[in-house]
């Protein structure tokens, strides 16, 4: 391929802020690469947390070394868990045992990570005799916490916070809790996991029932650590029986399908491309993206399917094809909740209309992802309309380079970078440092995929 046809991917750093420039003055870009995406973020948080409250040693291979799991690790270290090797290929956690977290000397900081804050709340609320204060960055301090405060209070938890106890910072006085059967109004793995973790130290059966199935990594990993967990797939319910101790384990974290999604869409929409993403977690509660891409006519194949430490894994091969619009909604949404911004990018390259509904949850993620996806893709020339609970994209409008911004949201930054590969001219993405939350290697791999 002639050098002139390659895009130029460059990063400029100014203080804490990075700007990613993607310059694509010529057509003729094709992506060809084999890529290994970093460890699954959801599984990484859980491996650290369960390791910290288990007895003995937990070894975690393939942990995501992004900012979100680091926030989890720092909080757990402040409460007495020993965590070593955070820059290495194997992280070792020496746990304190269920109910033995120590009162930290300072405020716990969950950074940008909703999973850290919401899952930790279940552990803290049930940690009797200790007081905790938890906070996060500006984005996290604006995200709703009542969804976990309410069920924890129904178990007897004492939690206070800003705006009627709905926003962080939150103060928690750990208690002996009562078991609960909680019918959650939303399909949220963070809510489910928070309540189940609170149930570990609680005498009796704690159950969460969801309106649709959310990711089940907590249930799988709790079982592997020796807890009694009952799952009813038809009723969308999960039950833990407490009090229980956990035993340290070896955890192998698969590649994050939410990170692989950027390559799956890039490979599908950039002409003449072929990308192989290796070692991707394909847990059925996370594979909505594969189903959505299949509905749109993408050429995606799962190769070498296997099971690694209780989670299904595959290599995923994608080749360019002409996508067509489709309708996404209902129970599929929780199974692709983090992939909607990048699916919106796929829809800009599809023929016809794509409608995404039942996705109002996106308004309370790291940014308002419906508003930000619509406004930033529109700046690149996409015909996209924000709906109260989703997005409507009229595919086929040619994209052109523009100045866009991540709004501090890692998945928006990466989605815009993939969109920029199709945009004629120069795109600059402000706030590109956000990629380090879940995918520190993203820009280097983007350069690799572009042949730089
Ligand atoms: C996560 C659950 C999802 C997801 C988030 C990670 C988890 O959030 O969006 O990125 O690890 O449990 P909700 O539980 O709010 O849907």
Automatic annotation (TrEMBL):
Catalytic activity field: 3-phosphoshikimate + phosphoenolpyruvate = 5-O-(1-carboxyvinyl)-3-phosphoshikimate + phosphate
GO biological process terms, semicolon-separated: amino acid biosynthetic process; aromatic amino acid family biosynthetic process; chorismate biosynthetic process
Keyword Transferase in record: yes
This protein's pathway: Metabolic intermediate biosynthesis; chorismate biosynthesis; chorismate from D-erythrose 4-phosphate and phosphoenolpyruvate: step 6/7
Pfam families given in the database record: EPSP_synthase
Residues that bind phosphoenolpyruvate: 41, 114, 143, 190, 369, 411
Entry EC no(s): 2.5.1.19
One MF term in the entry's GO annotations: 3-phosphoshikimate 1-carboxyvinyltransferase activity
GO CC terms in record: cytoplasm
Keywords in alphabetical order: Amino-acid biosynthesis, Aromatic amino acid biosynthesis, Cytoplasm, Transferase
Positions of the Enolpyruvate transferase domain: 30-446
Family: Belongs to the EPSP synthase family.
Listed NCBIfam families: aroA (TIGR01356)
Role of this protein: Catalyzes the transfer of the enolpyruvyl moiety of phosphoenolpyruvate (PEP) to the 5-hydroxyl of shikimate-3-phosphate (S3P) to produce enolpyruvyl shikimate-3-phosphate and inorganic phosphate.
Protein name per its UniProtKB record: 3-phosphoshikimate 1-carboxyvinyltransferase
Organism annotation: Rubidibacter lacunae KORDI 51-2
Phylogenetic lineage: Bacteria, Bacillati, Cyanobacteriota, Cyanophyceae, Oscillatoriophycideae
Underlying gene: aroA
């Amino acid at each position: 391929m002639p050098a002139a046809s390659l895009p130029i991917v460059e990063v400029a750093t100014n203080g804490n802020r990075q700007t990613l420039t993607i310059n694509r003055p010529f057509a003729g870009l094709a992506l060809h690469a084999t890529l290994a995406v970093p460890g699954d973020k959801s599984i990484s948080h859980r491996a650290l947390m369960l390791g910290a409250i288990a007895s003995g040693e937990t070894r975690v291979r393939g942990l995501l070394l992004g900012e979100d799991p680091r926030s989890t690790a720092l909080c757990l270290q402040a409460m007495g868990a020993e965590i070593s090797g955070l820059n290495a290929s194997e992280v070792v956690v020496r746990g304190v045992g269920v109910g033995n977290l120590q009162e930290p000397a300072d405020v716990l900081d969950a950074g940008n990570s909703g999973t850290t804050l919401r899952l930790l709340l279940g552990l803290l609320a049930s940690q009797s005799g200790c007081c905790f204060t938890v906070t996060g960055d500006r984005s996290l301090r604006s995200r709703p916490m009542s969804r976990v405060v309410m069920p924890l209070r129904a178990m007897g938890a004492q939690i206070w916070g800003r705006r009627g106890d709905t926003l962080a910072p939150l103060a928690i006085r750990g208690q002996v809790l009562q078991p609960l059967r909680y019918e959650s109004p939303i399909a949220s793995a963070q809510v489910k996991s928070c309540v189940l973790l609170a149930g570990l130290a609680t005498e009796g059966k704690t159950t969460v029932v969801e309106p649709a199935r959310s990711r089940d990594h907590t249930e799988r990993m709790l079982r592997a650590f020796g807890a009694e967990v009952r799952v009813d797939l038809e009723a969308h319910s999960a039950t833990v029986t407490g009090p229980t101790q956990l035993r340290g384990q070896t955890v192998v974290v698969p590649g994050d399908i939410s990170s692989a999604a950027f390559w799956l869409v890039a490979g599908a929409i950039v002409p003449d491309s072929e990308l192989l993403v290796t070692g991707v977690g394909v847990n059925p509660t996370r594979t909505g993206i594969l189903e959505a891409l299949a509905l749109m006519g993408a050429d995606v194949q799962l190769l070498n399917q296997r099971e690694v430490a209780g989670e299904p894994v595959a290599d995923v091969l994608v080749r360019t094809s002409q996508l067509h619009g489709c309708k996404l909604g209902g129970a599929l949404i929780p199974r692709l909740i983090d992939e909607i911004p990048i699916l919106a990018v796929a829809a800009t390259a599809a023929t016809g209309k794509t409608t995404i509904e039942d996705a109002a949850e996106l308004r309370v993620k790291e940014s308002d992802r419906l508003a930000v996806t619509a406004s930033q893709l529109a700046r690149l020339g996409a015909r996209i309309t924000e709906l109260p609970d989703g997005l409507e994209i009229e595919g086929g409008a040619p994209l052109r380079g523009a100045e866009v911004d991540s709004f501090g949201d890692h998945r928006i930054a990466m989605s815009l970078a993939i969109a920029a590969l199709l945009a004629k001219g120069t795109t600059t993405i402000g706030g590109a440092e956000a990629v380090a939350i879940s995918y520190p290697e993203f820009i280097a791999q983007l350069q690799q995929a572009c042949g730089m």
